[in-house]
Amino acid sequence: MSLQVSLVYLTCLILSSRSSAPGRASLHRSSDSAGRCHYTFTVASPEESSCSGSNVKQEMDGVLSRLALLEALVSQFIKGADGGAGTGVGANHEEGLQEAYTQVTRERNQLQQDKEHQDRQIGELQRRLAELNKEAESLRQTPCLQAHTSGGAQHEIKPASDPPYSSGSGAYQEMKAEVTEVSAPHLIPEGNHNLTGCGELLSVGEPVLQRKADSITGKYGVWLQDPEPQGTYYTNKTVWRIDAVGKDVRQLFAYEDTDQFSRGFPMKVLLLPEPVESTGATMYRDSLYYQRKHSRTLIRYSVVSESLVSRLDLPQASYHGQHPYSWGGYTDIDLAVDQQGLWAIYSTHKAKGAIVISQLDPDTLEVKKSWETHIRKHTVANAFMLCGRLYTLASYAAPHTTINHVFDTATGTGRTVSIPFKNKYRYNSMLDYNHAQRKLYAWDNFHMVTYDVRLGRTSIGSS
Ligand SMILES: *[C@@H]1O[C@H](CO)[C@@H](O)[C@H](O)[C@H]1NC(C)=O
Ligand SMILES: *[C@@H]1O[C@H](CO)[C@@H](O)[C@H](O)[C@H]1NC(C)=O
Known about the structure:
It is found in: Cell projection, Cilium; Cytoplasmic vesicle; Golgi apparatus; Mitochondrion inner membrane. GO terms for molecular function: metal ion binding. By secondary structure, the chain is of the alpha+beta class. The chain has helices spanning 12-18, 56-83, 94-140, 151-154, 258-263; strands at residues 3-7, 25-31, 37-43, 200-212, 221-224, 239-243, 251-255, 268-271, 282-284, 287-291, 297-302, 307-313, 334-338, 341-346, 354-360, 367-376, 382-386, 389-393, 400-408, 413-422, 428-434, 439-444, 447-456. The protein has a domain at 148-456: Neuraminidase (6 Propeller). The strands form six sheets. A four-stranded antiparallel beta sheet has the order 4-23-22-21. Strands 5-6-7-8 form a four-stranded antiparallel beta sheet. Strands 9-10-11-12 form a four-stranded antiparallel beta sheet, with no helix packed on it. The model is unreliable at 1-23, 83-89, 144-160, 165-173 and 177-196 (pLDDT under 50). The site of one 2-acetamido-2-deoxy-beta-D-glucopyranose (NAG) has 3 residues, from loops.
């Protein structure tokens, strides 16, 4: 008489049809058509009613727990066979059962190995997921669609204390309306992202509206956040704003954060000791740096002590309309801050209108080093510094323009580039980079906007 023990496992459909209560094991004995006796051990899945589940790990755990039950049943069965009681199976069947037990053990070991392999794969997948999340985060920094809504403007509460329109001093600074149309190519350069520190500018995102000025004095101006605030009273959340329209521009508005800024509620208005010329001011380490009206004098004003800390003439600098940006506005001297410190972007009589870049000592305002470029200042609309490189904007009015030059102070060389840039409101009077926020700040025809930027690996050499 031959006895064959067949073990049925993993075939959930059969399991579930044989056994209804989960977690229970049973033994079924039947003869097949050839007259041989079949022993069938079945264990129901503790979790699943059918095989439709897709969680491999859960399934594997289920199989393992079922196997444990099966082992218990088999050993119980062997014990019963040894005692020769209750089961009706003789001791001579022991060999076959032992074989079945060995097979179960072998299969359990195989499953355990599979499970370990699966665990490793899960670990690997989790690592990949973390990487993808990081990538998604970096992609989010260059949004494809304009994320900001104009809801702020719709629900705007008109503040009592936002920059008031002083009807007596409505004189405009010089403005020009020549438009340098430069067609924007569609190519966005490829490159590796560098989310920390420096890199080359690869692309500029859509303008995101932060605030719209509500009076004529807000046609153009300067708004900033300090990339490196030193104290606790003013932080990297504080927003600073100067409306630059008027004969005697001396008010510096401080807002607690971008939210208060977008609502138009300043926390403080500081009165500057000297009037401001144009939109070239910058904020760095708790000081406002600006050009004194109708002069080449630079002023460092501490917003903490609320007093003038240093003043110094910028040697040979042109001023008051001699070498402004293309839009005019007495933008002869533009101050900028980046990872490497404080810079002045201007021209001199000697340079004949070509842009001169000087690195300044932020304490004394003295020139540490200067570079002369071949970029005619009046041909570009604005400029900013990023990682020791000067970038220029081709047009202040074209809705689709480009960043068209880069000059690297590390190598003393420049080249033309073509990075698409949008002047959504068609009169961009200020452009500054904030390296802490990793954004460009601009003042575009009453609209204070930010742009996300994408930076990439520093390329070697330039032409
Ligand atoms: C602003 O300052 C806080 C606290 O000092 C810091 O955690 C945060 O990263 C800063 N944010 C930026 C954009 O610099
Ligand atoms: C990112 O910038 C840092 C700081 O300049 C630099 O050390 C690093 O090599 C850059 N990484 C890449 C991928 O370009």
